[in-house]
């Protein structure tokens, strides 16, 4: 359940959360790096000055990443939190994170930012200038990050800015600086810099025109017919489409050659069949019935399957298992948590087992990274590929008959710890099926499987009949589209920079039956981007609604329906966003699980399609602030509404607290039993975020 919520958190936070793996030496107040050649002492004064790290941060330590040339410096304070700065061997700042902004996040209810986006951008640029003055004048903000990521979520915590480096007024691919600025204090929360120093950039002299490059590209890049999924959230449709799969190919602007510099195509293997239908917990009584009737394996059998299959020995413990059911389906899944104990510490990951077939659905070894850190490569890629094939065949023999191995990019973010990734895609009617297949990741040091997952879609797929040809699809996909000039490094040698023309709309696909261009990114953006509501011109809440649209997701469509009574689930979707949880999925059960965990709504109060009275809305708001206990002392509160006697006695305290917080104003009638309208709900949410 929490997977869905976490996906929509700040992009800036996600980009900067790269955890170190080893603390090298530590005392109460400092740590000393004994195995690194980096002389950190000469960089510390500059770093502290740039980020204004005061002496109040009196606990200092250092951590080494798996790569020897990256060191994390950490300053912490019991009262203020922790500041982390990562540097390379030359003292270049790669990452920064200020952890004090995440303290007590679960109890926090946000406010509107005190600074605007333009002010935040200036703060971000000023920091970049202090860190890298040589490129500060060459960076451009990416105005449309949607072209680089699927969804840059709303964020009440602050503003996230993506900058790209330019040379000769040409963007440098993969040279990105991401900065997040706190919307309240104006402080930089995080910085992530990705790029290389001392690169040589070819001049623009003698390059071919974009038109010539486009003709070359169209002639040399092919399309592939694949089964794809179309849709947003849990509304998916299976269809046949043509898309570009050799996405790494670009046109050298000087030599006219087609070369490999861009990102290689990645066949998705997401478990959309589960996200589409959702999971629900199984009661203990139903679990016993299923096990006794031999309909599913027991939790002990599921745990034993994990232990035996992956040879988990000393230090491993499976400490919890939970049975879940796929809604509207007869599929049951054991969710298993695995812990690896190491010295005084531990790490935990999860696994899933099909409770009916015993097939392992996914697995991640919590002890794999540490074990392979200091070892040497013992296995070739070919040996590990055979191991991956054998594993898939043994675990899922019937599915193995329908898959094909796809050459993919090795997963090796730390360079010294070789992890090989093997992708196997399902083929149906000799056509690849996206989101159906297997992913196996194996350590080249230990030969052990460190990560494994599969996704399989048993839905009906359209036959490859009455479809357009590849040439027609290519004509459609390139019509009116442009290539962009960009500096990119060769995939085999990223320091060898080429000036290339790249087709930036490679994510577009063509429906093989209708010839329609499908743009998943646009469909996602259209569904959740702010649109001007047509029916709020005369609403008393017009200004509040428009202000809210800058920070949270409201209602779909072009009509706000201000006078309509709001449903419980729609009101609660607005309320959870004030706590930084940007819930955008159309899955009521997941939403209410979150609300129950946050103690905002109990299971007994769940009524998604029901109306919300004005006093009930206040009850949920006060709970979001964590003040339920004091709110139940209703008799000690004085309420000055004319109809105060109509307020439920158990909610009088809630109403008084809400008034004290400035969420409701108070004179005249409160109308506690009236159903809350959409415009009134907008004003309540606005007042929460606009409180002093």
UniProtKB/TrEMBL annotation:
Signal peptide limits: 1-25
Q: Which UniProt keywords apply?
A: Signal
PROSITE patterns given for it?
SLH (PS51272)
Any keyword Manganese? Answer: no
InterPro entries in the cross-refs: SLH_dom, YcdB/YcdC_rep_domain
Q: Which residues form the SLH domain?
A: 638-692
Q: Please provide an example of a Pfam family that matches this protein in its UniProt record.
A: DUF4901
Name of the featured protein = S-layer-like domain-containing protein
Species, as recorded: Gottschalkia acidurici (strain ATCC 7906 / DSM 604 / BCRC 14475 / CIP 104303 / KCTC 5404 / NCIMB 10678 / 9a)
